[in-house]
Amino acid sequence: MHNPKIHLALLSEHTLIRKALVHMVSQDANIHVIIDVGSNDELFTKLNICKEVNVLLMDLSSPLNNTLQLLETIQQTFPHISAILIQNNEDPMMVSELLDKGIYGCIPKTSYPTELIDAVKSAYHKQIYRNQLFTDALYWRTGSLMNKPKKPKLSEVHKNVLILLWQEKNTKEIADAIFLSTSAVEKIKQFLKEEMGAKTTIGLIKSAIQNNIISID
Questions:
Q1: Which of 191, 202, 157, 198 lies closest to 175, judged by CA?
Q2: Among 28, 64, 130, 156, which residue has the fewest nearby CB atoms (within 10 Å)?
Q3: Cα–Cα distance for residue pair 145/164, rounded to 1 Å
Q4: What is the structure's pLDDT at 121?
Q5: 83: closest CA among 65, 108, 101, 97?
Q6: Which contiguous run of DSSP H or E holds residue 70?
Q7: Would you state the pLDDT for residue 209?
Q8: In CATH, what number is assigned to the domain containing residue 14?
Q9: How many CA atoms lie less than 13 Å away from 71 in the CB half-sphere?
Q10: 63 domain-assigned
Q11: Range of the domain at 37
Q12: Is 174 domain-assigned?
């Protein structure tokens, strides 16, 4: 079986934490830290030079708005990079906002090293790392929407695609499961985003839960 080659960029303003994280993730032979920086400016300078990075691990203590802006810039400038965040704050409202920006995982600083490595691997495969914090954020999002938008009219195929996305299936796996081409699945995903007012896969999942298409119980 082919082992992934994960080229990781690591951003943390705290040198001691950054070096500890480098040591931690490097215990996995498939993870290679190729950028290790302490500021946003350093990060963008090196990302513009080093095109191999496919996962970004961030340990940030900046205000939420600054983090959201950073994520938005990363998405626009380096769309091939999957970002995950290590944080102290486990507020589901904040995590929900981060997920809306396309982040692939939020890892509490109380987590074990194996969880961090699993999150990095999930991000590499373009899959959301589904830990308790992720589930809490989905519950918060569902419960906080006082006025539900009109329920979208979806076919069984559309619903099946949403369920398979929740099951962390990639485009090819979804195509095989519902006997369609990968291009057809991509068109369905784009249609679902437009129909359900979502910008990301996690947005689709949230909307599907809100409309009782997916159950997380």
A1: 157
A2: 156
A3: 24
A4: 93
A5: 101
A6: helix 64-77
A7: 81
A8: 3.40.50.2300
A9: 26
A10: yes
A11: 6-129
A12: yes
Question: What CATH number is attached to the domain comprising 206?
Answer: 1.10.10.10
Task: Spell out the SS3 assignment of the chain.
Answer: CCCCCEEEEEEECCHHHHHHHHHHHCCCCCEEEEEEECCHHHHHHHHHHCCCCCEEEEECCCCHHHHHHHHHHHHHHCCCCEEEEEECCCCHHHHHHHHHCCCCCEEECCCCHHHHHHHHHHHHCCCCCCCHHHHHHHHHHHHHCCCCCCCCCCCHHHHHHHHHHHCCCCHHHHHHHHCCCHHHHHHHHHHHHHHHCCCCHHHHHHHHHHCCCCCCC
Q: Is residue 139 part of a domain?
A: no
In what helix (H) or strand (E) does residue 154 lie, and over which residues does it extend? Answer: none
The tokens for 39 are: 């500021």
The pLDDT tens digits along the chain (217 residues) read 456 789 999 999 999 999 999 999 999 999 999 999 999 999 999 999 998 999 999 987 777 788 888 888 998 899 999 999 998 766 777 777 787 778 888 888 888 899 999 999 999 988 888 887 777 776 665 555 444 455 677 888 998 999 898 888 888 999 999 988 888 889 898 888 888 888 888 778 878 887 778 876 5
Residue length of the chain: 217
CA 51-172-127 angle, 5° bins: 55
Pairing between strand 55-59 and 82-87?
Answer: parallel
**Same structural domain for residues 105 and 166?**
no
